Amino acid sequence: MDFETTIGLEVHMQIKTKSKVFCECSTEFGAEPNTHICVICTSQPGAIPILNRKAVEAVVKTGLALGFTINKQCTFARKQYFYPDIPKDYQITQSEPPLCSKGKLAIKIDGQEKIINITRIHLEEDAGKLIHEIGSRKLDYSLLDLNRASVGLMELVTEPEISSADEAVVFLNELRDIVRYLGASDCSMEEGKMRCDVNVSVRPKGQKELGTRVEIKNMNTISGIHAAIVYESQRQIEVLSSGGKLVQETRLWEDEEGITKSMRSKEGALDYRYFPEPDLVPFDLTDEFIENLRKELPELPKVKEARFIKEYGLSEYDAHYLTSSRDIADYYEQALDAIASSQKISVGNAAKPIANWISTELGGKLNADNKEIKDSPVSSENIADLVSQILAGTISGKIAKTVFEEMYNTAKDPQTIIKEKGLVQISDENALSKICDEAISESAKAVTEYKSGKERAIGSIVGLVMKKSKGQANPQLVNKILAEKLKF
What we know:
Elements: E1 3-14, H1 53-65, E2 69-70, E3 73-74, E4 77-80, E5 90-93, E6 100-109, E7 112-125, E8 129-134, E9 137-145, E10 152-158, H2 165-182, E11 194-204, E12 214-219, H3 222-241, E13 249-254, E14 259-265, H4 269-272, E15 275-276, E16 283-284, H5 287-295, H6 301-312, H7 316-322, H8 326-342, H9 347-368, H10 380-391, H11 397-410, H12 414-421, H13 429-441, H14 444-451, H15 458-468, H16 475-485
Parallel strand pairs: 12-13
Antiparallel strand pairs: 1-10, 1-11, 2-6, 3-16, 4-5, 4-15, 6-7, 7-10, 8-9, 11-12, 13-14
Helix pairs in contact: 2-3, 6-7, 7-9, 8-9, 8-10, 9-10, 10-11, 13-15, 13-16, 15-16
């Protein structure tokens, strides 16, 4: 029997605000345990939560970007959640209505577009963090860090419309790009700022009813999510194929073993016993509030990617890389603005070379140093100036790599480096003619081969000219001079 897999995702993203969602404690990551806490986020008796306006704005912006209906009534509920990482034994969240209802995200799989419908986005608070080991030492007890408690979270819940692990990965990457563009969340999975619960079920092909749903809890890497879906789908197929029955449950992904393990039976809404949060009064969002946020929405990744291809003649690969983060896209367009301001080189001529330098040379260096483009020692103005020097014939592409290396190491501008190191390209025909004569006289075999019809032989003569000029000869001019001299 053939089976098909159905996947739904519950994505939790920490909202990017300076303070927590219900108190004024810092959200800074990496502080010493239990240093960003107060009577509210540690659930002291009588402490009253105060809603962070910026958190509401971040959720509404995300909803607008994904085509959601924004529910104007903002209410909160208590979700009974008896775990040691929430001292008050309930979580402040939203039940009905959520801030955002019924959105969608278009993804591309094997060149085909697929719409994934999204049920809701709601605002809630994060829990604390349990620590079960320190370094390589596993503890026989657990430690509790409440720095994360009450940090704002938005939870996004998809419809069960994802059909494979590959689709889930594409969806999560697309979602992460959009939310980062909005500035609503950093979505750093390494820092726990984006986590995912994955619901997986299988059913015989052709069956309308969904199979028994199994939730895989607290996934925090894209690769882990992919592997867990593949494993869990196959596990469920094997159970059903052997005549067994599946139970609705929550499982954990054991990354080292590459398997899911049963954690507990899956709770339903009744188990959580939602009721209205008495300490946060319901209120309505105004049309003006929502429309002002709509006006603040930036150009989103896919729209920007299409524009880069159309306006700048970029390949899909380059355009996708340059729009993969808002910082990279801004850096690229700032470089083009610098070109336009200088009026020495046209933007049309510079657009592709600048894209190449950012995606290859600069991107490679930053990746090797584990840096983001916002931390680049090479400014967008300087990368534009470097390309200008190449296009103007001041330096060759080969020399440019030497200049770029120095730019990256010292943050100096290219013109200063070119002058300091005497790297100006030689474009004087008389000077190059003499060097070409020397190279020809020392390359008898290559000259004979070239004159006998092997045109590629000229390459070794060009190489000798470049060596004699210490890489500073204009290669186009060298080829022209040599071709004229070797006619007879």
